[in-house]
Each structure stands twice: as C-alpha cells, then as structure tokens.
Amino acid sequence: MESALIYFLQLVVSGLSVGSIYAIIGIGYVIIYKSTKILNFAHGEIMMIGAYLCMVLISRFHFSFTAAFIVTLLFSALMGIVLERIIFRPMIGQPVFAGVMITLGLSILLRTSTGMVFGYGNEVFPSPFSEEPIVINEIVISHAHMWAILVSCGVVCMLVMFFRYSNIGISMRAAAENQINAFIIGINVKRMFSLTWLIAAVTGSLAGVLLSNVHVMNTNLSMVAIKAFPAIVLGGLDSMGGALLGGLVIGVVENLVGGYLEVYIGGIKEISVYILLFVILIIKPYGFFGTEEIEKV
Amino acid sequence: MVVRSRTFVETYQEDIALFRTIWTKFWFALLLIVILLTPFIGDRYSIYILNISGICIIGAIGLNILIGYTGQISIGHAAFIAIGAYTTAIVGNWIPLPSLCLILLSGLIAGITGVIIGIPCLRLRGLYLAMATMSFGVIVEYILFHWIGLTNGPMGLGIPPLSIMGFQLDNHTRFYYFILALVIILALGAKNLTRMKIGRAFVAIRDRDIAASIIGVNLTYYKVLAFGVSSFYAGICGSLLAYSMTHVNPEYFNLFLSVEFIGMIIVGGLGSIAGSILGALFMTIVPESLKFFLGFIRDSFGLTGFEFTDQVRVAIYGALIILFLIFEPGGLFAIWQRIKKFFKMWPFSY
C-alpha cells in the first residue's frame, strides 16, 4: 500500500481506539443525564479514582489484574451509591445550575483528594496486555488499544440491550421519564436512581482502567473525560448509541488533526476537540440522535 | 406623638433607594471608617490577603451579574480574567500607557471578547451553555500556552509597575486604598445597573426567558449585554490580579479559577451584589485563617506530616460549594438576612 494511505489508516485506527474510550466515558454521562438531567462533571474523577485504585492494588498490594479489576468495579459501584445518596439525591428537582455546580464542586474535591492520597507524580499503569503490537496489513495496533475497542463496543451494546429489554432497564427508563408515574405503577424510584449512579460509576472506572493502559497516570487523567463532552453532544446528550458514534468520530477527528496539522500549529490536537465542541454546540446543539428540548410556556 | 413603627415608602424612588433610612447610612459610614482604618491594624500579609479578596470581589460581582442575575451559566470565566491580565501585560510592555488607562483597556478588551462569545452562545441555555463556555475557557488556556510569540508561553510575562498620576503604588497599603476605591466604584455601578431597567430585564431573563421576551425584553441585546458587562468586570479583575502578582502565567487561568469564582458567588448568594462581596471575602479569608490556625496547632503540638498546600485550599473550595448548595442554596446573604430579620422581630417570632 501507499505510505500516505497507510499513514491515514493508521491515524484512523488509533483514533477509533481512543474514540472508543471516549464512547465508554460518554455512556456514563448519558446514563446520568437521561435519568436525572444532571451533567456529571465529576465523572472524570470517578474514572480516575478507579484507575488509581486498580493501579495501587496491582503494584503495591500485588493483586493479580483480574482480582484488582473486580475489586475496583465493586468499589466504584459502592462509590456511585454513596455519592448518589449523600450528594445527588438532595439535588433532585433543583435547577440545572445547582446540578452543574455541585458536580463541579465534587470534581475538584475528588481530584485534589485523589492527589493527596495517591500523589501527584506521573506513574505508569502495570498493563496486563502484551507489549507486542498486532500488525494487520502494515497497520499497527497495540493490544491495549485493541482491548479498548472491543470492551467499549461490547459494554455499550450490553447497556443498550439492558435498557431496551431487561425489566430493570425498562423500570429505570420509566423512572427517568416521569418519577411520579413510575412510583404509582410500583417502581422503587429511589432504588432506580441508586442503580443509575452505580452503573455510571462502574462504566466510569472501567473506562479509567482502559484509559490508564494507554495514557500516563497523573491527576490530569480526569481531564480526558471532558474530551468526551463533544462526543456526547455530537451524538445527542440522551442517546447511548449516539455516544458510541460520537466518541468514535471525535477520536478519529482528534487523531487526524493531530497527524496532519500538529506540525503547523503546536497543541492543535489537544484543543481541536474543544473547538469542535464549541462548533457543534452552536450549529447543532441537540446532536444527531438527541431529543430536542421543546419548551412549553 | 407620632410613633414610627417602620419605614413606609411613598414613592418608587424611595423604594429602590440605596440607603433607605438614616440608620443604614450610619452603619455604612461606620463600616467605611473601619475599612479605611484596617491597614493601620493589620500586618503586611493580611493586607495582601485583603487586596486579593478585593480583587476577587470585582470578579465575583461581574460573574454574579451573568450567573446570578441573568441566569447564564459560565464555567469559562477564567478566560476573561486571563484576557484582562494578558492585555495589561502585553500592552503595558509594549506602550507605556498610564496604569488607569491600562486597567480600563483590559476591562474593555475582555468585555468585547465577552460580547463576541455571547453572540454565538445566544441559542444555548443551561447545560449546553455551561459546556460551550467551558470549552472556550480551555481553548483560551491552550492559546496562552502555545502562542509563544504573543504570550511568551509557559514562561509568562512581567508586568510594569503600577502608578497613578506619577504616584507609585508600590506597597500593599497604597494598593489597598486603590483597590478599595475601585471596588466601591464598581460595586455601586453594579448595584445601580441591577436596580434599573437593565437589571430588571436580566432578572426577567433568568426567571423565564420566553416570558421575558413576550413582555418586550430584547433577549439578544440583554444577554449579550450581560456577557459584556460581566467580562468587563472580569477583565478589570484580571488586570488587577496581574498587577498584584507582578507576573502572569498561563497555569493560573485554568478551570479551577473559574470554579473558584463560581464558588464565591454560590457561597455568597446568587443574584445579590452584597452576596458577591460576602462570598469573595469568605472564600479568600477563610482558607487563609484555616491555614494559619492549622499551622498554629501543628507548631504548638509539634505535629508533622500535614502541609496546608494549595490543593487543600482547592479541596476546601469544593467541599464548601457542595455543602452550601445542599444546606444553604441562598448563601451567606440569606443567612445574613435571616439574622437581621431575627433581631428586627426580636423578641417576637414574627
């Protein structure tokens, strides 16, 4: 193959793998947004805490990766429930601003506490995947990236199925749709909210573990979650399939911009996603699959 | 004998007057005297902290006009502060303008940027606006880091010394009076802005923008105006910050700074100028006193291992935002009014 084409395809493939991580982060935002209309700015920190916990369990307490991974998921499930109970339940029915602000406050609180507990230095996650890259038709992809794509797509599909077909998933959607009506037909609305935060926190720390395999570990890890904003806005804030598609698109765009424009404008790769977010918000704020908010007077 | 049971207002002018009774005037005069005399009591460090909190008051008032009065959520306010600070640095190093002109220019440039950002943001509300302003903040931060020809990148820029009409404001006490004057002017300006037609239009937009537009409030004009005024205050705040730090650095103008300012107005009270002042004072003075107090405890008991770092301060900010939003959404201003009401009615409960 031509080297220019290979370069292009290589950028697309690594973009897809980064994008699939954005997608799974985005799913966390979407689940919470759908049920509580809160955009959880602290999701990145929940993700980062998962990644740090997993790393510490492996490197300091010598857990095997599987055991550390399971403990991390259990811990984040607990964290999701506790956060919901003490912080977010009083926020139900409050104005949008209060929801945004309380998550922002939580995000800086969690980020600094993580730094204080685990330190601020750069660390490397003890990756369970082999270092040997996979080569398909001269296009190189690492095991970690491959796993990121597979796991993300799998989790997103599972969640979509869960919300569409399982009883609990349908109850959760009902509770999100109309709390009083859901309560009347016998759904435990409070438990559904707990479950929502639980699922979001678990997907968050899953994303954190996947991300830390391909990203250096420091307290800026949580900023990666903000890059998932353009993904969910592009797909529509309340659409899970949209989050997957949006994540992949954003990952590819970011990588292509980095690959072709970084030499001319330094730092453009980092900020391209934010520029894209700004543009999407102004041109098409409800994204491709999002429900347009119709204001009733 | 005529016994006045309470203050009755007879005209609208009396109703919206700044100082409604002679006693209010008296208390404000007393407060002003105390504030004027403060530099003679405090040491250099506490005056420095008061200066910083005065600068924060200006920024917080501006942000409160945008968030508290107009209801437009902005998480990118640090960008406007950065624009103010960098205008002072770049223009000040380039042309020797008088400092007052430079401060005003920083405010104006930040204000114009605010208008430019406000126009595309007109369609957005709530969460979407929050995300748009946040991405603007991040974009500005990256530009500060990477446009090395203009901003000198991560190295930052020095600031020319501050002098007003040939009078050098080189120590903290002189700077204190200068900031005090600016705070009084800008706070009165904001107070007047919010009690005239413009302020009522802002509140109408916050409460229900569709209803506001039905009764004849020009949404485009007032939303953009709110962005402009708020950014103007942010620009002045940034310029003064630059003068007080004598050096600007892009690291300082990150998302944390925006959240800090939002924290101030939440703790102080949304939609009130007095609230912004209380919040800014509270959020700058409380962490410092806590730092002093914890340091005192540590030294007197010989404890080691706990350092009151900047991170601890940020964590306290986060915790305060959460606690106030859950337990006291009206902020310190609501608490203050409750106390006032209690003593007014005392000993009766209503």
Architecture blueprint of SSEs:
The complex is a heterodimer of chains A (297) and B (350).
Chain A: H1 3-36, H2 43-59, H3 65-88, H4 96-118, E1 134-136, E2 139-141, H5 143-165, H6 167-177, H7 179-184, H8 189-214, H9 223-226, H10 228-235, H11 240-261, H12 268-283
Antiparallel strand pairs in A: 1-2
Helix pairs in contact in A: 1-5, 1-8, 1-10, 1-11, 2-3, 2-4, 2-8, 3-8, 5-6, 5-8, 6-8, 10-11, 10-12, 11-12
Chain B: H1 12-15, H2 22-41, H3 44-69, H4 77-94, H5 99-118, H6 126-146, H7 148-151, E1 157-158, E2 163-164, E3 167-168, H8 172-195, H9 197-207, H10 209-214, H11 219-245, E4 247-248, H12 255-268, H13 273-301, H14 310-327, H15 331-345
Antiparallel strand pairs in B: 1-4, 2-3
Helix pairs in contact in B: 3-8, 3-11, 3-12, 3-13, 4-5, 4-6, 4-11, 5-11, 8-9, 9-11, 12-13, 12-14, 13-15
What is the compact description of this entry?
Chain A is an all-alpha fold. Helix content of chain A is 72%, strand content 2%. In chain B, 73% of the residues lie in helices and 2% in strands.
Report on the architecture of this protein.
The complex is a heterodimer of chains A (297) and B (350). Chain A is built from twelve helices and two strands, in the order ααααββαααααααα. Chain A has helices spanning 3-36, 43-59, 65-88, 96-118, 143-165, 167-177, 179-184, 189-214, 223-226, 228-235, 240-261, 268-283; strands spanning 134-136, 139-141. Chain A has a two-stranded antiparallel ribbon with strand order 1-2. In chain A, a hairpin with a 2-residue loop joins strand 1 (134-136) and strand 2 (139-141). The longest helix of chain A is centred in the first third of the chain and has 34 residues, at 3-36. The termini of chain A are far apart. The relative contact order of chain A is 0.19. Chain B has a domain at 47-254. In chain B, strand 2 (163-164) and strand 3 form a beta hairpin. Chain B is globular, with a radius of gyration of 21 Å. The mean pLDDT of chain B is 87. At the A-B interface, helix 4, helix 10 and helix 12 of A face helix 6, helix 12 and helix 14 of B.
